[in-house]
């Protein structure tokens, strides 16, 4: 039992020990656990701290990275944006809302949209190359709206934008567009339609592709031939841009080949392609743009997607195109006269040639023309209003500013109505004149004789120069000037505007003028005499084209827009140049010698006046103003000086380069009477007045008596009263007394001590054909039967003048009745030999004949005559030429013939009657004879009777 107890005790003790051990182990474990937990807590705390720090560090780093990235991206976008703005300035790169056309001179890169890298980063303009740089091939995903579905597509919007940018950034006319759009027939580019009218846009239909490509290839070939390779600057040709809007159809092999040629060679020649749905050959010059929905990828942007701009607003496109078309139709703004002037005035020598710019070329450079040995003469052509006069102004301005009056002399003639060259002469409004101008003729119109006079003058100058050249053995002007440095040998430029009027008739004037022109044209070249002929239309001038030798000398041709036949037949350049341009061709019109010049508005009065006044102030001392011949002006009678030769009567002004009086001489010799014939009473009186004034100056002691047998015409005497204050006047019936008295007292010997006596008569026909004179049995009257029914006979019956023989009551010791019966005829026959001369006005040749003795009378007593409105054939009895002179009367002009001086009749311009200077008066023909109770020549009856005083004293 005890064992059992002891065992139990032992067991208990073991259990207790075990328990103690277990408890101790547990306590140890607890301790470890606690320690471990503590450690865990420590570690965990450390971990959390570390993690938080790491997170914070990471965040900081990330923020820094983002910040740096953003900053750099913004900066780079800014740089790229500035770069893009510089590469595509103004209209090439501006977004549509702010877009305006403006010529920038750089059209190479064009904006199509933007590259958006990040939302926070500004976008960068996406540019693609075009003009002078690349062709463009546009491909697209099938979903892009396309021509096949007749919807506006992104591609078409892209093309429209490119076209507008290219047009807006290049000078008007420098870009021509061809649009091949077989499917929509031009509808894709409808906004550009206004350009078609201005020739900028050509729509090409389905059948036109081959022709278009051929033409462009040909153009490239021509450019490559004519523009030297490597020449700096742009070729003087517009860019040509062909837009090909494909319709899915394949090109023919020929079209493909031409297209490939253009791809290879077009860019260098300014010919470009924009091809949509038309594959282009692979070539470095081709820029590819691929469209996917609203994004696009292009070679220039690489992998970066481009967000395309919207198409330009349709109204904006149309407005820009309309404006451009308008500007092109109106032509470019004119150049300025100032562009043609040299930096320093009068510094050039004309020894070798005259060279001056006439306008500016397409590149803005002056286009110079030369007159010298080659080319020597110029032909200018252009229809009315095309700018011939303006061109002449520009040319003359440029010449006159370069060459002094010692180097250049100008003779200028304008045959048409107007006063174009009058500005070169002084006027009441502008006292300045162009010092180079020797002669300016305006309103020359029908005075072809004046043109002839100029040619004769130039011909005389040519002879003078030829003689001098021979003396110095000089072959041309430069040599003559070198041999004779002190001589005055300016180059002469004679400009004749509307010269066809000089050569337009088949008569002696044309024949002589053409012969003189030919001679001047041939020989003038070496003598420094240059002709510049201008005309609206030279095609019909027989005298010109009938003389090929003459035309051939005019190697300088200047054609204004639409000029005909000035250039060579095959040269059509004048048909295509715009307004205010000219084709200058110094090779007789050969097409290869064409130069196109834009002309300044030299007609502008202010610009011209400033230049002229400047040159005028520099004029050499003693320079005289040019002679101005104005065909519409009536010259005033000059002051005649004492003259030592035979007495002479001025019947008007000669039509000549110098404004000289036209005289007929009145020496004491048979036949020295003057008859003025025609119905224009005022002009007849004015001629008598100038004749009287010049005779009075020629012979200071001369006596003058004035007769006007028709009292109705007494007012016409006024100019004679003004010219001859000391003359005696015999109006109405006393006129007959005058003739009777003078006739009866004709000196029989040589009465030089008494001086000449001039009888001036108005309407002397009223003296001679009185029926009463016939009944008086006077020899003259008997030879002069009135012819009832003719105008003269009617006039005789109506004449209020009583029969001369019956009226002749003047007392006088030497009254010889047989002669006194026809005193006028007696004086005409016998007076001049005794220094008694009749200067009278008859209203027709028939009446003059009656005064001379009737139908078979000879005109020997009329040594000189002046015809007014008498037709040439009517002058046959007085004329040296059988059938009468070729004379077509017109107001303000008279035909004069002095048998002792002239071989042919010459045209003269009657002077204005004394008094204030007048314009040419309307012609007032005197009636053939006054009707009973009424005046003639517009004079009322009351005046007539009042004027019919029987006796008037000197100067009364
Ligand atoms: N280059 C130019 N720039 C601006 N205006 C011009 C220019 N050329 C001509 N004009 C103007 O055109 C008009 C006609 O010119 P101009 O008188 O020179 O022509 P024209 O050929 O001589 O005509 P016509 O034969 O009928 O006299 C004028 O009003 C002139 O001012």
TrEMBL record:
Low complexity compositional bias, start-end: 933-956
Pfam family, one: FtsK_SpoIIIE
Annotated residues for binding of ATP: 382-389
Keyword ATP-binding in record: yes
Keywords: ATP-binding, Nucleotide-binding
Segments of skewed composition (Pro residues): 922-931
Keyword Ubl conjugation: no
Record-linked SUPFAM superfamilies: P-loop containing nucleoside triphosphate hydrolases
PANTHER family noted in UniProt: DNA TRANSLOCASE FTSK (PTHR22683:SF41), SPORULATION PROTEIN RELATED (PTHR22683)
Name under which the protein is recorded: FtsK domain-containing protein
Organism: Catenuloplanes indicus
